[in-house]
TrEMBL record:
Alphabetical list of InterPro entries matching this protein: DUF2158
Origin superkingdom: Bacteria
Pfam families the UniProt entry points to: DUF2158
Protein name per the record: DUF2158 domain-containing protein
Length: 71
């Protein structure tokens, strides 16, 4: 899959959503992300290890649990 600068990606194995900041000719994708403390991180990954990230759901979009009737 070809990624472009600005795409939001995630490792196929999971992890944080990351933003693509560069892609080189050897299919390395350079990404930035922020951890839970707000610290910025950067690294490069082979493109076949990444997938497009699923956007986070807002509270309005999140599924509402359905209560089951008690007997």
């Amino acid at each position: 899959m070809g990624f472009m600068i600005g795409d939001t990606v995630q490792l196929k194995s999971g992890g944080p959503s990351m933003t693509v900041n560069n892609v080189d000719l050897d299919d390395y994708v350079y990404c930035d992300w922020f951890d839970e403390h707000g610290d910025r991180h950067s690294d490069k990954f082979k493109g076949d290890l990444l997938q497009g990230a699923v956007p986070a759901q807002t509270a309005a979009e999140a599924p509402v649990p359905v209560a089951t009737p008690s007997l």
